[in-house]
Amino acid sequence: MTILRALLALLLSVLPATAEQIVLGLSEYRVSITADFDGSEILVYGAVKRQEPIPAGPPLQVVVTVEGPSTPLTVWRKDRRWGIWVNSAAVTIDRAPSFYAIATTGPLREVLSETEDLRHRISITRVIRAVGIAAQADDSPAFVNALQRIRIQEKRFVLKERSVALSDQTLFRTDIELPAALTEGDYRVRVFLTRDGRVLDKLERSIFVRKEGLERFFFRLAHDQPLVYGLLSLFVAVVAGWLASAAFRLLRN
Asked: Which first-to-last residue range defines the signal peptide (predicted)?
């Protein structure tokens, strides 16, 4: 009996203080990139499932993130020397997402603590992995800040605070815009429930982004048979130039 009581106490100690869980849905689970693709909009919606009444205290908050495929990249710094701009220093970022969007019910720093942000890598700064970057340059944080600034300007990094609608601390929804220049791959969608800055529950889904039709054919050809792709591109350029020249001759006549 003593052992059973100890096991029961241990089980209760590891259970969450509030049984609030995410029920999640997406308007699309697959996005096709075609010739006329100009972006897409994903509806993220869901509800909070509870086994008890809504707890008193700070209100519930929701954070939604959409993350594109991550790749290593090199960030260069240009300096003016002898009257021209040249690459003077570089830092290699281990992994950075090709696209990253955050949507929240309130200001990010109010709905999420620094500790939870560090643990789950939610903010834009945390999601960029730069292990060992300090050994490459004394001012390496400036390179990371430059990467963030450039991708924010390109709308590839997006922070949309107060864009998640939450009704009665139960139903939530938000729209995430995917740009036209999408990288093919699996996009990770994460939803976090927080209260007083602490993450109560999280759920993850995937959106599959694939090239279709001729775009996929040329994409695979460029990666699998680069020589054939290069010769084909040269042939198309020659034919296009010949057709343009013929059209100008007809117009002059």
From this structure: 1-19
Token pair recorded at residue 139? 């001012």
pLDDT tens per residue across span 60-102: 999 999 999 988 888 887 777 777 777 677 788 878 899 999 9
pLDDT value for 1: 45
Q: Which of the 8 DSSP states describes residue 131? A: T
Q: Which residue has the tokens 């996009």?
A: 187
Extract the tokens encoding 13. 């100690």
Is the CB of residue 155 less than 8 Å from the CB of residue 68? no
Q: Is 227 helix (H, G, I), strand (E, B) or coil?
A: helix
Distance (Å, whole) CA 49 – CA 21: 5
Which CATH number is 12-211 given?
2.60.40.3880
Residues in CB range of 156: below 8 A, 6 or more apart: 98, 99, 100, 179, 181
Rounded-to-10 torsion of CA 9, 10, 16, 18: 0
Condensed to tens digits (0 to 9), the pLDDT of residues 168-178 reads 989 999 999 98
Decide the pairing of beta strands 40-50 and 171-178.
antiparallel
* pLDDT tens-digit map of 5-20: 443 444 444 444 457 8
Between the alpha carbon of residue 76 and those of residues 68, 86, 109, 145, 167, the distances in Å are 22, 10, 30, 12, 46
